[in-house]
Write a structure and sequence with these properties.
346 residues; DNA Primase, Chain A; DNA primase DNAg catalytic core, N-terminal domain; Dna Topoisomerase Vi A Subunit, Chain: A, domain 2; 3 domains; four-stranded antiparallel β-sheet; binds zinc ion
Amino acid sequence: MKYIPDDIVVKINGLPILNVAEKLGLSVNSKRTTLCFMHNDRSPSLHFNVRKNTFYCYGCSRGGNVISLVMNRLGLCFVDAAQWLIQAYGIDVPYGRKDYRKLKISVALPKAQKVKSEYVPDVELLSWIMDVAKLSDIAKDFLFHVRRYKEEVVEQKGIKSITDANKFYKVVVDRFGLDRCKKAGIVKWNFKEYRYETVFECPCLLFPFYDERGIIYTIQGRSLREYPTNRFSFPNHSDSFIFNLQDVLNADTETPIFIAEGGTDCLALLSEGKKAIAIPGAGAFKEEYIKYLKDKNLFMFADNDDSGKSLFARIDKALRVYGNYLHQMILNPKYKDYSEYYAEKR
Ligand SMILES: [Zn+2]
């Protein structure tokens, strides 16, 4: 049994939480807030309470103390998180102490500088999930009856679903082991129930994202719950990317390509026979995407909300550097997004 002495736990949880956050690669603004790394955050929702030395996310309702911040950020168990902090802060635990000697035997610890390292997809694990997942009746009902997307589009884009979170967790952990699932960001720690669980809020759809070589990069979960905590989720630490990137890679400079804000709007556009990609969330646009877009003929029905307008403005601005621009398509304001408009037309 590995064990951290109580007085050391108290000492560790007393480490200044903003400083710990910084060591974990989080950039906290002057309002003591940062973009939450536990959910797909659009504006900073993760708050630090310096007086209580705790953190709390108003987006996904997760929070805790110094040790739980490290556990969540690095995907470590309690003991490993405590040891990471002991090492990072050079906390003195007298070697002669009987209880600490056991602790010394433990595994190699991740170094603080590794936190900022780039996301590396676990291609085997992600491909396996997309291979074995099916399309449940709940998912089919949503896709084909509520939203009326074309079956061949859904099939061609490889959209799948998960129905039961516990069953999915068991199957994927049995196959790859908990450590690998944590590393791939597919499972996360649930503070309320004190156990690991999948990052996907089930039942949910799975949207596979492929890179320019056609190799899987990440999976976005789209919850089918009526009131999910997070409608969308990516594996922890994974970057968002462009959904259906292949459509831009294969297009010439004339063909109109539509940019959607999410995977489902993209399916609506594709179901109409258009070429379309999705850049999920206004915060998800990255300057590096411009290399795929700079010479293409691009259109966008921006969602009728602030994040839709902001995404439009960011892409348009980036294109103008290359003498290109984004055609703005106007959606009747009575529709929230393109999917709503599309479903009503059917
Ligand atoms: Zn959050």
